[in-house]
Every structure is written in C-alpha cells, then in structure tokens.
Amino acid sequence: xxRIGIRSFAHFAVALMLVSIFSxxxxxxxxDTSVANGNEMVQTKAFFxxxxxxxxxxxxxxxxxxxxxxxxxxxxxxxxxxxxxxVRPELxxxxxxxxxxxxxxxxxxxxxxxxxxxxxEMLDIGKTYINRTIDYMITRLTDIQExxxxxxxxYSVIGEYISELEQEKETVDAAQSRKxxxxxxxxxxxxxxDATNHMNQFRVQHIVGNIDRYLVxxxxxxxxxxxxxQRLDSTGEDISDLEDMLDRxxxxxxxxxxxxxxxxxxxxxxxGDAPGYLSDTHSGIKEANxxxxxxxxxxxxxxxxxxxxAGTGSLVAEGNGTAVLSGDIDVSITASNAKLVIKDLAGxxxxxxxxxxxxxxxxxGSDVANPSLVYLDFNGDVTISGSRMTVMINGEDxxxxxxxxxxxxxxxxxxxxxxxDDGSTGSLQWAAASMTDEDTVNGSE
Length: 445
Fold this sequence. Notes:
The protein has helices at residues 3-17, 24-35, 39-49, 53-68, 88-112, 120-146, 153-174, 178-234, 240-269, 274-302, 437-443, and strands at residues 306-310, 314-344, 350-360, 373-420, 423-424, 428-429. By secondary structure, the chain is of the alpha+beta class. Strands 1, 2, 3, 4, 5 and 6 form a six-stranded antiparallel beta sheet that branches.
C-alpha cells in the first residue's frame, strides 16, 4: 500500500475513537482526551465551537474550490456530492467535519442541560456523525482500491471492507437507542482495526516481494560482472578497482538482505522496529545502485570495441559492421555498400565526400533542430571534422582513422588499434553487433 494510504489509516483510526459518544460521560471524555494530545487539537476545537455548521462547511469548501476551481452547491445539512472525482475525498471530509461540529455543540448542550442524552435529536446527531465517518472511511478505501489491480487479493479484500461498512450504515439508520448506536460503533472499530491490519500486511508483503526480486536480480548481475572482470584479467587489464567495487557491491547486497529479514521478523513479532529496518533496506539499495553505476562505467571504459579518445594519439580500425564516433573529432573513412549518418550538433562540421552516394532529405526549416545528414549506398571516401558531432557508418570494408576528444564504438567483425604517447594497444577485436544504427546515433546525443 502507498504512503498516502498508511497516513489515511492513521487519520481515520483517530477519527473512529471519537465515535464512542453515546453517553454523557463518554462524550466529554472522548474529546478531552484528544485535546490533551496537542495544541493543534485545542485550536481545532475552538474553531468548531465558535462557528456554525454552515460556516465550517463554507470554509472547508472554500479551500476545495480554490484548489480545483469548482463551485459546489451546499445546503444547511450536507454538502452535495459532485461528479468530479478530484474533490470527492474533500467533500466527504467536509461532511464529516460538519457532523463533528454538530456533535461538539451537542456536547456543550448536554453539559448545560439544554439537550437530553436520550432525546431523538441527540440520536440523530449521533447517527449523522457515524454515517459521515463511514462515508469518509469508504472514500479513502476506494481511493486505495482504485490504484490496485482488480484481480489482486488486496483489491478484493478492500472491497469486502467497503461492503461491511456500507452494511453498517444500514444498521446505523435502523438504530433506535444509544445502546444500539454504541454497539454499531464498536462493530465499526473492529472492521477498521481488521482493515488496518490487512493493509499493513499487504504493504509489508509488497515491500518484501520487491526486495526479494531485487536480490535475485542483483545476484545475477554480480555473477556477470565477476565473469567480465575475469575476462579482462585474462587480457592483462588492471582490474584492481573493479574488484574492490564489486566487493563493496556484494557487501551492500548482503546488508540489504539482512535488514529485510530483520524487518520481516520485527513486523511478525510486533516489536515496532520494522519501519527502521525497511528504511535501512531502502538506503542500502540506493547505495548499492550507486556503486553498480560506477562499476558499469568502469566496465564501459574496458569494453571490447569501445575506445575513449583523450585528445592525443589516434585510432585506426578495419572491419565490417557499424562504427559510431562522438565528440570533438577529425575522422577519415573509406567504406563500401554503406550507410553514413552525420549529426552536427554545433553547426561547424566540415565534410568532404568523394564517392558514389544517395543523399536523403531529412527535412529543413526552423522546426527541425540539428537535422541529420544521411547518405545511402555510399561507396568511397569521406573526411569529417567538427567540435560536437556524431558520425555513424554501417557497411563493408570499413577503414577509418580518428583523432580528437570523444568516444568510438565498433561493433561487427574487425580489428582496431589505438596509438598514443604510451605506445600501441596492439590488435583488438570489434565488439559483437548489439545495436541498431538508429539507436546508436540517436542515443549518443
């Protein structure tokens, strides 16, 4: 269940305690206990007692109208329902608050002797208050239910509680005495207590289920990273940083699993520690994901077919497949039966094509930002330079040389070599093809 639903349950649990009003003593004790809980409650009581039912309704609905821009028809007894679902909860809350206002006035009248606890008027005030409380409860349950899958167990269970509360309204309407109203108020409290327990149970099950799925996925990811690190080690790469990061990732995942188990145990035992453990679990997952991002970035720099150009040296490559170059670069390419795409993001690219090709019109005008230059059936040579661009060549017999600052991805079959001030990498293989031309070019922006 979402966080809003949990807050709603807490709010209504307090509201339901006020239903036990059906003797003069209970009426006084109920509100006095609430006032002792804080200054805000004292101020609220003063507001209710110093204003009429109509004024309370008007102030509540003024807030609703200010937020949604609606004019709501209202009368002396009840704010009428409107169809707009956006204000439905506020309408029921306004009705509930108006009924509580009447109840507080009735309490003062009971104390000064102007109203009898056994009068029909007091019975009607009690009925209205309980029914408005039930309406508000049903509204909140319905809001939660609408965010669930109709085939889920949670949806069905909430529906049962809504039905039970609807039935209690009939019992309230049929009540002929304070005792009967007291009995139905106890029944409502039991329904709400059960609903709260069920919702908390569903929420914990949902959280734990998500964590379990995360842990299973994390184990798979850890294994794949370990395999990749081992492969890099076999090629003579320095893997010390990667090993340290993977160890930290695995430690965090173990901590997540431990906090999940402790949280589940605390919930089942009712110790009250479950929220803290689940919060630690959330923090652990966030930290593990941060470490994982660092690992993946490091692996990217070591990935076969990926070259990072740092402004010195050059890349020479030959092969069949796709090459994507991005950044501030100078590149010369020879290819056959190729598709060439150039995206000039800075508007300063210089292009010199020598060979057969078919240029595709990709549109022009102010509504087209940085249109790509597309050349099909390209056979020949091209030199390109620019401060911020992406170049994609897909074809056969590709020979390219690149210099500058940026990155290059080579996928297909072929070999490449990087020469810089520290020497040469030697002959390396292109990566197996895994991206489409369009995905590569568009994704590089």
